[in-house]
Known about the structure:
Layout: H1 2-23, H2 27-34, H3 40-55, H4 68-85, H5 90-106, H6 110-127, H7 131-144, H8 148-167, H9 175-187, H10 192-209, H11 213-227, H12 233-252, H13 256-268, H14 273-289, H15 293-309, H16 316-325, H17 328-398, E1 402-404, E2 410-412, E3 416-422, E4 425-430, E5 435-439, H18 442-446, E6 453-457, E7 460-463, E8 467-470, E9 474-477, E10 482-484
Helix pairs in contact: 1-2, 2-3, 3-4, 4-5, 4-6, 5-6, 6-7, 6-8, 7-8, 8-9, 8-10, 10-11, 10-12, 11-12, 12-13, 13-14, 14-15, 15-17
Amino acid sequence: MGIQNTYAQIEDNYLSNIIRLSKNHKLEKARGIIDTMNNSELKKLLILELDYSIEKSSENFDINKLKGRELYISRYLKANLIGREEQGKDSLIYKMYIKSFNQAKEAKDTLVVNEILNKLNWHLFRNSNELKTFRKYIDISEFFKKDSIDRFYVHYYNLGYELLAVDQELKKMDTLWFEKTFKDGYNLTNVSYLKALLQQLHSIYYGSYLSDFKRGLLYNRKAIFNYEKDSTFVSQKGAKSVKFNVGVDYYNQGKYEIAIPILKKDLKNQSNVLYQMYGYDWLYKSYEGLKLYDSAYYYFKKMVSTKDNLNRLKHARDIKRIEGEFDLTKKEKELKLLSKEKNNLRNSLYTLIPILSVITLILIFIFYLYKSYKKRSKVLEKDQSETLQKLDELKKIVIKNHIILKDKTKVYIADLMYIKSDDHYLNVFLSDGKNHFVRGKLNAITEELPPNFIRCHRSYIVNSNFIKQVNSDTIILIDKTQIPLSRSYKDKF
């Protein structure tokens, strides 16, 4: 008997260590201890539980041969399996958890009690509208909690309960309480899987309850980062579910082009019919947002067909939620009509496109001719302007052969050598040696003279026909008269 008791004690210690390691998500270490156990039925059950978490495997098993601690541990593990495989009603799973909990509590097995309460609360949070029952077992968890993992789950389920209460309009949103409780939850664990679990709930809080989709997206990305820190099946499954939520976040921000490939990728590998229904639902909404009514109508029909294939008793709440959004028949007619109108428009466009193409080519050709005409007109206008300017200059040289001074003296341009300004008077010098002193301004008389008269100084204008030599600062005329040359006018010579 003593040896048997020793073996039983060893098995109990193995079980306790396995549960502690599993709570801390040290799954591979827990799997190693299981291999050393003797009880074949319990060993098989524990292997199935951990293998599901590590690599997703499942198999049914019989617990009738087990007794005592092995029996109530096996019963809650079997409830986990039935829930995962969707093999039984929620009420059956609930009863199995409660029976296991009562037996573990009677045995004062606090370690197992906390583990069962965690699984039971998860079941109530995910699958039940019975908030009173959920609240009851959260409070019981508060009483039995022993370590930081237990405290973490109490925080997590308190957050879940409050969100459900707000959802069912039993409570008002208390953002200060939520922010503090989320912060406290993060301080309770360094386990990546648990952090990701809380970040996923945090994103739901921001996106679904506060409509802050950018923050929701931020916490979803944090959750994916923590889930992907290890390669276990449960972590990869968590990352996959969050990636779907990322698609929904982009939809809610109106970024339909980004949302669609994410949602399609999730659907491609999705075997759960319920999640397929929600995937089709968000895809049809995204295409409707882009006004691509053919695709919207296609995914709407897929969503309705998938909904009709769901177990109405098991998924009553989800079906009611989809059917409650709108009148499905009316919506289908609306999408069908929009899709038909768009197809008619597309067919009309196919007819019009060749005609429009010909018209476009004609317009392009006309535009090209117009541009060529305008270009040639500009060249002709420029040439005409230059010709007229030259004619004006010739007129000045050929036609205008004299000027009349203010004292009525007629001076022939061919005889005019240079003009000097002296205050308000002009001294006009002729080639015959004569000069005329009259009132006037240099600028005014310049306008009457032809182009061969050039300004060389602020006080002088010279007839270039009489220039013999140009020096750095003087101009020498053919009669050896020297006229000053300013630097400012030097470039004209």
